[in-house]
Amino acid sequence: MEVLAVAVLGALVALGQGQPIDPHAAPASCPPPPPRDCQDVHARGARSDGVHLIYPAGGAAAPVPVYCDMSTEGHVWTVFQKRFNGSVSFFRGWDDYRRGFGRADGEYWLGLHTLHLLTLQARYELRVELEDFENNSAAATYGSFALAPRAVSAEEDGYSLHVQGFRDGGAGTAAGAAPVGRGRRLWGGGGACGVGAALVGRGRRLWGGGGACGAESIEPPTYGAEPTELHSYGAEPSLTGQNPHLWGRTHPCGSAPRAPPAGDALSYHHGQKFSTFDRDQDLFAQSCAALSSGAWWFRSCHLSNLNGFYLGGAHLSYGNGLNWARWKGFHYSLKRSEMKIRRL
Predict the structure, then answer these.
(1) pLDDT digits (tens, 9 = 90+) for 25-50
(2) Could you read off the pLDDT of 124-165 as tens digits, one per residue?
(3) Is 31 helix (H, G, I), strand (E, B) or coil?
C-alpha cells in the first residue's frame, strides 16, 4: 500500500512539473560493456595493431593494457607474451607471473590471473609465433587453450594449463639442428658433408646421424605420448612428433636442408601447474624452474621454455634459453616469441 502511495505521489509531482507520463516508454538504454579482449576492441572500431585497454574482470575492475594484433591470419589476437630483444627479465617469482610485468608496447607477460579470467569466459585458440636469429620463422596453433578452467581457486590450482588441438602453422626457409634433450632417447642428423652430427647428451642414449652426402640418418621409433625409458633427468617424450619432421636427415653437398615446422612442444605440458623458482609445482625431484632459468608449466622438465633466459641463439647450457625444442632443440635460444589468443 505504501509503495502504491509513493508511486501515485511521484506521478502527481511529475504532472505538476509539466512532464508527460508514458507508461509504454522503453527504459533508458545501458552503455555497452567495456571490451574484455582485443576482439571487443576491434568490434568497437579499432583496426590497427597496437596497445589498447581491456577489462577481463569486468567494468568495475581496473583496465589492463594489452597489445592487440589485428592482422595475423586475418584474425584479431590478444597477445599475452611477447619477447624480441631481451630488454625485460623473465626470470621472476610467482607474484610477478600472477600479476604480469613489462610494458604492452615492449616485452611483457600479461599475467596468469588475467589470462585465467580471459579464458574462463569463452573458448580461445592459441597461436605461438617463433623466430630465430637467421630470420627463419615458425608457428604452432592450438584449437583450445585455457588456464584452470574448472578450478574454484585458479591460484590454488596452479593456473594449470589446458591445451588441445595442435596444428602446425608453417615454417621458415632453413632447418634447425636436430634437437637434443634430457631424460629421453635422442636421434641425430647429418652435418657437413661426410661428417655426422655431434649429439650432446647427459645420462641418456644417443643415436647418431648421417655420413656421406645424401645419406639418411637412423630413423627414430614412432613417437609415443609417454617416454619408453627413464634417465637421470626424469621422463620426457622423444623429440619426434605427431607430425614427423625430417630431424636428422642429411642433404646433398651445397644445398640447404629442408625446413621443419615448429612442431608441438606444448601438448606435453597439458594439465601441468605453472612453476616459478619460488613456487615449485612440477613433477620432477628438483625445481625445473631453477634448472631451466624460467617459469612455465613444467613437467619433468620441458619441451618448451619460452620464458627462459634470452641467450641470443646457440648456447652451450642445456635447456635454459628461450627454447622450443621441436623446432630448434635445447641449445638454441630464439630471437622472438609471441603467444596470443583469440575467442572462437
Answers:
(1) 666 677 888 999 999 999 999 999 99
(2) 999 999 999 999 999 999 999 999 999 999 999 999 999 999
(3) coil
DSSP state, residue 234: B
CB 292 within 8 A of CB 301: yes
Whole-angstrom distance, CA of residue 201 vs CA of residue 136: 26
Q: pTM of this prediction?
A: 0.72
Contact 321, 308 (CB under 8 A): yes
How far apart are the C-alpha atoms of 319 and 329, rounded to whole Å? 8
| Cα 343 to Cα 122: distance, rounded to the nearest angstrom | 7
The answer regarding whether domain 38-171 maps to CATH 3.30.540.10 reads no
Q: Which one-letter DSSP state was computed for residue 5?
A: H
- Whether pLDDT at 78 is above 60: yes
Which residues of the chain are in CATH 3.90.215.10 domains? 38-171
> Could you tell me which residues come within 8 angstroms of residue 265 by beta carbon, excluding any fewer than 6 positions away?
140, 303, 304, 324, 325, 326, 327
The amino acid sitting at 158 is: G
Closest-CA residue to 313 (of 135, 63, 111, 46):
135
The full DSSP string for 180-215 is: --SSS-EE--B-STT-BPP---SSS-EE----STTP
